[in-house]
Design a protein that fits this description.
Helix content: 55-70%
Number of strands: 2
Shape: extended
Strand order of the largest sheet: 1-2
Length: about 100
């Protein structure tokens, strides 16, 4: 049975250019996921102010979700790994470390 998570450095790449492309793509995927959460909070806030503004915000969120899906699909194509199952080594948290 395959491991549920994989470190980015354990993924096999054809060449260094593909690795750097996927590393940048992975970073952008994580940033876009964070941005989408903020956009959804903003949309909820706009619902209280104006329905028209909320509809426009919702359309932008839907477009960004499609872009994010395409980015994740591209990452999977080049790595064979789902981006949500890749551990970011820069943000690795050791729960046993008290510091």
């Amino acid at each position: 049975m395959p491991e549920p998570y994989v470190r980015f450095n354990e993924i096999k790449f054809i060449n260094r250019q593909q690795k750097s492309f996927c590393k940048l793509l992975y970073k952008q995927i994580k940033e876009m996921e964070d941005d989408l959460m903020a956009e959804e909070e903003c949309c909820d806030f706009l619902k209280n102010l104006s329905d028209h503004a909320a509809k426009i915000s919702y359309q932008a969120i839907e477009n960004n979700k499609k872009i994010l899906f395409a980015m994740k699909l591209t990452f999977w194509y080049y790595t064979g790994t789902n981006s949500s199952s890749v551990l970011d080594e820069e943000k690795l948290v050791d729960i046993f470390n008290l510091v």
